[in-house]
Amino acid sequence: MTEQEKHKKELRTRAMRLPLSPGVYLMHDKTGKIIYVGKAKALKNRVSQYFGSEKNHDAKVRRMVANVDTFEYILTDSEFEALVLECSLIKQYSPKYNILLKDDKGYHYIRVSSGPWPRISEAKRIADDGAEYIGPYISSWSVRQSVDEAQKIFRLPSCSRKFPQDIGKGRPCLYYYIKQCCAPCREKIREEEYRESVADALEFLRGGSAKSIRALTEKMNEAAEKLEFERAARLRDRIAAIRKMGARQKVVASRIKEQDVIALTQGSEKSCFEVFRFQNGRLCDRETFLIGEVGDAKEARGEFLERYYSMRSRIPPRVSLDGPSENEALLSRWLTEKAGKKVTLVVPQKGKQAQLVQMCRSNAAEQLAQTMGRTGREASALDELAHLLGLSEPPAYIEAYDISNLAGGENVAGMVVFENGRPLRSAYRKFKIRTVTGQDDYASLREVISRRLEEYRKKKDTGEGFGRLPDLILLDGGKGQVSAVRPVLEESGLQIPLFGMVKDDRHRTRAIAKDGGEIAINSSRSAFTLVSSIQEEVHRFAIGYHRQARKKAAISSSLTEIAGVGPTRAKSLLRHFQTIAALRSADAEEIAKVPGMTKPVAERVYFAFHAKNSVGTALTDESVHGIIKSKLDG
Fold it and tell me: Which residues have C-beta within 8 Å of that of residue 582, sequence separation ≥ 6?
């Protein structure tokens, strides 16, 4: 027993003496620094779990436990008091293995520059530069959105050109041609008209779209009465632009006036929480938090809610989540007391709310993908697949298997690998079935998975190729294939998720098979696209190998027609020369050097390829290929 194992045993012995009372526990490393703070309904049960078997621990927990030197605990009167104390201690000590969120919320302003050609922009602080500042606003995202909307609606410049210095210099940019800039740089607008546009934009920013539409409508009617039709047309276009912008915003509108929507996307090394904040039914703010790996999603959501609302003063009456969180009732009570009004945690299952949650999750996936160098679609598909299959985290390394044969002949299997949602062709492998005679896909799959796991035991120290275990195994087939292979995994003692890929009558992916049933996949979801791609790829790879094996067998069969060449010598010739063309170009002496060949047999092989007399027709490339084709077609 190593020193680390002895120390872990001592910590478990100590943990087993803890009371079955609620409280908070603090893990310390060798330097005495607090590296993790947690709460428990029963301290003895919770703390002792850390120092027991590692089978149920994720990688993050194993790393934390490996660094624990000692622990202490504080008893509380209730689990709720433990939650409140835990939040306070985490805020105080910022432990390494707790979810820590960087609060970059500061004040943001809308800046209106001075001078005859004022510009509207975003600013993080007030400067003594003579400009006008509107605000402060807490959300930088809402300020950026508002400034962008105002610039597009009122066609105000967003470039770095300065006016009036740059008027008449250079050509108008693309924004002018797509009608999102009035191009003062080319004198396309008079100064007084420009200033009027800026004033209307500021009224829009201060009063909102409804008030702005009313004011612009009055101006448009007044211009029309004065026969100022050109001005009236400009105002009409602005009103239309505001309404069009409002229509776009309805895509992310909520019938629930005030709520937060929170979603999690997990990667192999990092995770991302996305928060959508709604007020008056409109998306008013969004926040992204990139953190390290979090392990169990349910625990991560609970911990994130604690950290996030410890930093925020505004707590809505409803929080919509993309999945269950730990201690939901306890968290709801804590949020209710903190907000001074009832707060409900929900996990929408259908309708508009479920769509909002999915949109939030997709944005989290996109943010994570940008960080990890993947596309948003790949990250979203893996995250979606994990939710669909009930996996604790997205499967970064997927292996898929398919059996291919023709009436039990040339029985082979193909294995393809997808890493981070993309094919990893260097890891593809081929298997020639050794122990199964005839057409038995179940037995063939059992042999292939057994051989694959045996290779893992031999090469696991390398961590590469067969030395790396997959996060998910997919079989081309239904619950029969899954049931046939499941005992092989159970006997190995390895915990690898196993599912099948079910096809419909048209050989298209229809569902995912599990023990005792199926999981339907909606064809509009990104997980469907990923699973379909994997199924098509493994089928293509297995079929390709099967055709190759049949072709080689047909060539070998044609060679055995030569006197003295049996199956063993035919295989030896093919192994040595690789192709019929290479064999045909060799002389008798070269052929005789092949292992297992004799000089007389080598001469007969040479003669078979080159003789053109009444003894027989020479085995040309064309004749060999003809034999192959007839055998394949037969």
Answer: none
Contacts of 616 (CB under 8 A, 6+ apart): 608
What is the distance between the alpha carbons of residues 557 and 624, in angstroms, rounded to a whole number? Answer: 10
User: Among the listed ranges 62-76, 95-109, 234-248, 386-400, which one has the minimum average pLDDT value?
Assistant: 234-248
- Alpha carbon distance 579, 348 (integer Å): 61
Highest mean pLDDT among 250-264, 372-386, 428-442, 607-621: 428-442
**How far apart are the C-alpha atoms of 149 and 131, rounded to whole Å?**
21
Q: Is the pLDDT higher at 447 or at 100?
A: 447
What SS3 state is found at 234? Answer: helix
Q: Which residue has the tokens 């009930």?
A: 390
Higher pLDDT, 173 or 93: 93
Helix (H, G, I), strand (E, B) or coil at 415: strand
Half-sphere exposure of 122 (CA within 13 A, CB side): 18
The model's pLDDT over 569-619, given as tens digits with 9 standing for 90+, comes to 877 887 888 777 788 788 888 888 888 888 888 888 888 777 644 344 455
Residue 136, preceding peptide bond in cis (omega within 30° of 0): yes
pTM for this prediction: 0.58
Q: Is 346 within 8 Å of 321 (Cβ atoms)?
A: yes
Helix, strand or coil, per DSSP, at residue 403 = strand
E-only strand ranges, 258-352: 259-266, 270-279, 282-292, 318-321, 344-346
